[in-house]
């Protein structure tokens, strides 16, 4: 729904709406129903795919009457999906073929991101101005420190360092790159690539002196270890973590490295949903359920009651009218609580298990080399010309790498991926063995959970609350 006020503009009106919702439980409850009605009517009118899928659904019916959609089904019919009928998959892919376009808006309007998420195929997401404003607002307003810590942030210089795997068009990195093209703002934002050697990152950050580090938990843990070793010497007043869960030991390292003066914020995000939830001072993730509808479901798609673990959840994103996500399956395991959180914040609080990845430890002559799953995934998905539609990378102690592939020519795809992996690992001093596993990528036979990166070594327990 296009919020706009002549006085505040789109960004100001969105921020004001979020602030008002946080101060009026009645408004917060009423907002999703109006946004949902608008989204359903708009998608039905302008998206040929949804019009077809919903042909048998009464426009007056509740959301529960609408069919579930999957990433694969939407991507298969991509050209019929967006409500902006100028958009085609071939055109978006041609745009994405030039990494320099990451800092540009597709058709002058859309920030393009893509993600393979915690499972399955790649999804391409168009973020229009409204989606970006909602995301920026929720990130800013729904921190557990609220707006209070902005004084300390600006006193500390107001500089933001984003730590992402710098592969092009990844959620998070794109908006940072876009910020770097803006006059004035660009002096306050730097992007550091978690794939770079630690020495390159520490040199840049020591010079930049960020007030905030924002990025993948495990990438930030690696920087915290550099700080503890004395090579990184920065004094951020806050660290914001998103994208994956963090182990208790990882959180302890970050706290120890940056001290009690640094607030650690955690957010649950995705390309398709944007800001899903933010952790409160008690560490509980409060859903932004005025901007998205979250339906916990079991493996058969039946609703799961509050208080029980769900195998997945269905997302209805109330902010994205350009590319509607209505009852879109998200394969993360969550538990939604019916009881209010003692912190007093609005929004049902949830626990999230889906992204509890481990750090993967290789051996080198110089000692253990720790790599992040997100980086290893990029080393498979970012190799051009492989035709890979799905994969699983299985890693075992002793530098054993096995790859399961779904691709038209698996031997050729394996040779291409292997060359890139070997070059990357050898640059880190790691000599590994590589094997093409003939089994197709599939879910864990015990848990039923699908993961693309599987670490067969010792595991850390991820913190989910
Ligand atoms: Zn709370």
In short:
The chain has 465 residues and is of the alpha/beta class. The protein has helices at 9-23, 25-46, 48-53, 71-76, 89-96, 129-141, 150-155, 173-179, 198-208, 217-228, 248-258, 373-381, 410-427, and strands spanning 111-115, 123-127, 160-164, 189-193, 212-215, 238-242, 246-247, 263-270, 274-279, 285-287, 292-297, 309-310, 312-317, 328-330, 334-336, 349-352, 360-364, 367-371, 390-396, 400-406, 433-436, 453-455, 462-463.
What does this structure look like?
It is a single chain. 44% of the residues are buried. By secondary structure, the protein is an alpha/beta fold. The chain is globular, with a radius of gyration of 22 Å. The longest helix is centred in the N-terminal third of the chain and has 22 residues, at 25-46. It has two domains: 9-352, Rossmann fold; 360-463, GMP Synthetase, Chain A, domain 3 (2-Layer Sandwich), CATH 3.30.300. Strand 19 and strand 20 (400-406) form a beta hairpin. It has a ten-stranded mixed β-sheet, sandwiched between helices. Strands 21-20-19-22 form a four-stranded mixed β-sheet, covered by helices on one side. The chain starts with 8 loop residues before the first helix and ends with a strand. Helix content is 31%, strand content 23%. Helix 1 (9-23) packs across helix 6 and helix 10 (217-228) packs across helix 11 (248-258). The structure holds zinc ion (ZN). Zinc ion (ZN) is lined by residues 280, 282, 284, 286, 341, 343, 345, 349.
């Amino acid at each position: 729904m296009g919020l706009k006020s002549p006085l505040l503009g789109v960004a100001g009106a969105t921020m004001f709406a979020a602030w008002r919702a946080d101060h009026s439980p009645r408004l917060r409850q009423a907002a999703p129903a109006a946004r949902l009605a608008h989204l359903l009517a708009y998608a039905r009118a302008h998206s040929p795919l949804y019009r077809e899928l919903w042909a048998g659904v009464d426009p007056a019916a509740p959301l529960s009457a609408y069919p579930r959609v999957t990433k694969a089904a939407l991507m298969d019919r991509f050209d019929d999906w967006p409500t902006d009928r100028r958009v085609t998959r071939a055109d978006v892919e041609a745009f994405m073929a030039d990494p320099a376009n990451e800092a540009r808006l597709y058709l002058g309007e859309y920030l393009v991101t893509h993600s393979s998420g915690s499972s399955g195929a790649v999804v391409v997401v168009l973020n229009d101005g409204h989606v970006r404003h909602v995301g920026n607002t929720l990130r800013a307003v729904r921190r557990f420190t609220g707006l209070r810590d902005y004084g300390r942030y600006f006193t500390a210089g107001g500089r933001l360092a984003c730590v992402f795997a710098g592969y092009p068009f990844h959620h998070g990195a794109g908006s940072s790159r876009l910020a770097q093209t803006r006059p004035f703002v660009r002096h306050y934002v730097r992007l550091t690539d978690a794939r770079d050697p630690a020495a390159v990152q520490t040199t840049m950050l020591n010079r930049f002196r960020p007030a905030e580090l924002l990025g993948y938990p495990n990438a930030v843990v690696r920087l915290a270890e550099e700080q503890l070793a004395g090579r990184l010497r920065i004094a951020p007043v806050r660290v914001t973590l998103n994208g994956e869960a963090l182990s208790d030991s990882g959180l302890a390292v970050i706290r120890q490295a940056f001290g009690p003066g640094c607030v650690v914020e955690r957010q649950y995000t995705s390309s398709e949903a944007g800001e899903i939830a933010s952790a409160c001072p008690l560490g509980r993730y409060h859903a932004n359920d005025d901007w998205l509808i979250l339906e916990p479901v079991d493996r058969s798609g039946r609703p799961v009651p509050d208080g029980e673990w769900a195998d997945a959840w269905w997302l209805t994103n109330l902010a994205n009218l350009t590319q509607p996500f209505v009852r879109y399956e998200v394969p993360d395991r969550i538990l939604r609580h019916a009881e209010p959180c003692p912190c007093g914040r609005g929004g049902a609080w949830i626990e999230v298990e889906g992204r509890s990845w481990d750090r993967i430890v290789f051996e080198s002559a110089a000692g253990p080399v720790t790599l992040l799953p997100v980086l290893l995934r990029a080393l498979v998905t970012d190799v051009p010309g492989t035709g890979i539609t799905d994969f699983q990378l299985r890693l075992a102690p002793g530098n054993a790498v096995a790859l399961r592939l779904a691709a038209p020519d698996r031997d050729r795809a394996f040779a291409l991926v292997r060359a890139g992996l070997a070059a990357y690992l050898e640059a880190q001093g790691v000599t590994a063995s590589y094997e093409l596993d003939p089994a197709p990528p599939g879910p864990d036979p015990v848990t039923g959970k699908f993961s693309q990166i599987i670490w067969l070594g010792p595991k850390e327990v991820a913190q989910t609350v």
